[in-house]
Amino acid sequence: MFKKMKLKIGKEQAQRAMKVAVLGNPNSGKSTLFNALTGLNQQTGNYPGVTVEKHSGDALIQDEKTGEKVYVTYLDLPGTYSLYPKTLDEEVCFKVLCDDTNEDRPDAAIIVADASSLRRSLFLATQIIDLRIPCIFVMNMMDIARVRSVHIDINELSKFLGVPVVAANARKRHGVEEVKQLLVNGLQPPKKDFIDIKEFVPAQIIESVQKMFPSKSPYGVYQTINNEAGVEHYEILPTQKIDIKKLIKSTGFDKHRIQSQETIARYKAINDIVKECVKIDEEEKRKSLSSRIDNILIHKFWGYLIFLGVLFVIFQSIFLIAKYPMDGIEFFFVKLSELGRDSLPKGELSALLINGILAGLSGVVVFVPQIALLFAFIAILEDTGYMARVSFIMDRLMRPLGLNGRSVIPLMSGMACAVPAIMGARTISNWKERIITILVTPLMSCSARLPVYTLLISLVIPSTHNYGFFNMQGLVLMAMYLIGFIAALAAALVMKVIIKSREKTHFIMELPLYHIPKFSTIGLTIYQKVRMFLFDAGKVIIAISIVLWFMASHAPPGKFPAIETAYQNADSVKKYKPAHIETMVSSAKLKESYAGIAGKWIEPVIKPLGFDWKIGIALITSFAAREAFVGTMATLYSADSKDNTQSIREKMASAVNPATGGREYTPAVGFSLMLFYAFAMQCMSTLAVVYRETKSIKWPIIQFLYMGAMAYLASLIIYSIFKP
Amino acid sequence: MSKETITLDKLKPGESGIVLSFNDEENALKFMEMGCTPGQKIKMESIAPLGDPVAVIVSGYKLSMRKTEAALINVERI
Question: What is the CATH number of the domain that holds B37?
Answer without folding.
Answer: 2.30.30.90
